[in-house]
Design goal:
Elements lengths: L4 E5 L4 H15 L8 E2 L11 E2 L7 E5 L8 E4 L2 E4 L2 H14 L6 E5 L18 H11 L4 E5 L14 E5 L2 H11 L10 E5 L5 H11 L2 E9 L11 E7 L7 E9 L3 H12 L4 E9 L6 H8 L5 E5 L6 H4 L4 E4 L2 H12 L5 H4 L2 H9 L8
């Protein structure tokens, strides 16, 4: 099976793609699985996709980070930053460059393109659904993504495979490694959903840990739109008394950070002891000033996000931040898919989470 595997890492994912390739070489032996590609641009900004080596009859895995805005290209003598639209367009170019010669094409897109534009409320576009239909029409057999904002997007392409992977195992492992005094019982620990959209992932983790959940409900001003969304008026809490407890706030992403800071402030008012934040994607699209201030004032203890998307250098240096490495997990996913093995243990890693928790012995400080 080894010889039919091919990795194509777009510029947005080349650093992590190289590391994933190294892991696969350790596991399976042989030379590199990486097939070089490039998307050169004309001075007008137009581009084309090029695959350097043959991928005929290969099981191809294309890795892309649509949220990576660190890349720049020159257009009309000025530098432009790559937007999600630019990164997605380059993905389509590389798929088109495969020319139908690959045996199977799987796109590894950890941050689902336009995943937040997943439903229609007014006269508006359904960008995520359009993207999925485009990839289906271009011959993509499977899409691997992580913690999709709305997993029901799978219904758009019911005859194609979509693997929506949870990083819950890695979050569990790093928390219980970093902190030796977590008491895992309903009297000392609770999982918190910052809004109704996060309830499913919170219920999963709380069930495995054997503790309760709480939920915040976002009251919004639907008469106005600010920066593309209706502003939040208040966070209302549904749940039991929190005084003296450790809480874990779980969400799919931190964008500006304003919402998560509001939630932490509300939790502190309710007397929680420590606040840990699990967010699959740390975008921090409005900088770090607000989050730095929140940490300095004691609103939270630690933020854990994955390296599934581009991480700003200044983020990695923050005292309150922990980067959860997912490279080996992506390598395992690719290895499993290439061997046609079951994906269930990787998509919902409940068994390994329970083993991690069972082996954890807290050190109780007196």
């Amino acid at each position: 099976m080894k010889d039919d595997l091919a990795l194509i890492a777009l510029e947005s994912y080349i650093t992590r793609g190289t590391k994933i390739d190294h892991i696969l070489k350790e596991w399976r032996g042989g030379d590199t699985f990486l097939v070089p590609c490039k998307c050169p641009r004309f001075a007008s900004g137009e581009a084309k996709g090029i695959i350097v080596d043959s991928i005929r009859d290969k099981d191809v895995y294309i890795l892309v980070d649509v949220s990576n805005n660190s890349i720049r290209y020159e257009m009309d003598g000025e530098l432009n930053r790559m937007s999600p639209d630019d990164n997605y367009q380059d993905l389509k170019r590389i798929i088109a460059a495969c020319n139908g010669k690959a045996k199977r094409i799987t796109v590894v897109m950890p941050f689902l393109y336009e995943g937040r534009q997943h439903r229609k409320i007014l006269r508006e576009s359904l960008d995520c659904a359009v993207m999925l239909k485009e990839l289906e029409a271009m011959g993509v057999d499977c899409l691997v993504t992580f913690d999709a904002h709305d997993p029901r997007m799978q219904n758009v392409v019911p005859l194609k495979g979509i693997e929506n992977v949870s990083p819950a195992l890695q979050f569990t492992q790093v928390l219980l490694t970093e902190y030796e005094d977590i008491q895992i019982d309903p009297e000392h620990l609770m999982f918190i959903a910052p809004d109704e959209g996060a309830v499913e992932r919170v219920v999963f983790m709380a069930s495995v840990f054997g503790v309760d959940i709480g939920m915040f409900y976002k009251r919004r001003d639907y008469a106005n739109i600010v920066n593309g969304s209706n502003p939040i008026v208040a966070h209302d809490f549904c749940g039991r008394d929190l005084k003296g407890m450790d809480v874990i706030v779980v969400d799919d992403m931190i964008a500006s950070g304003g919402s998560i800071i509001d939630v932490c402030a509300q939790l502190k008012i309710r007397g929680v002891k420590r606040i840990f934040i699990f967010a699959t994607f740390g975008l921090f699209s409005s900088g770090f000033a607000k989050i730095d201030k929140a940490y300095e004032t004691g609103l939270f203890d630690k933020i854990f996000t994955t390296n599934l998307v581009y991480q700003k250098e200044e983020l990695l240096n923050r005292e309150y931040y922990y980067s959860v490495n997912m490279n080996r997990y992506i390598a395992a996913i690719i290895d499993n898919l290439n061997k046609n093995n079951s994906m269930t243990p990787l998509v919902k890693p409940e068994k390994r989470m329970r083993e991690t928790i069972a082996n954890y012995v807290p050190i109780i400080k007196t």
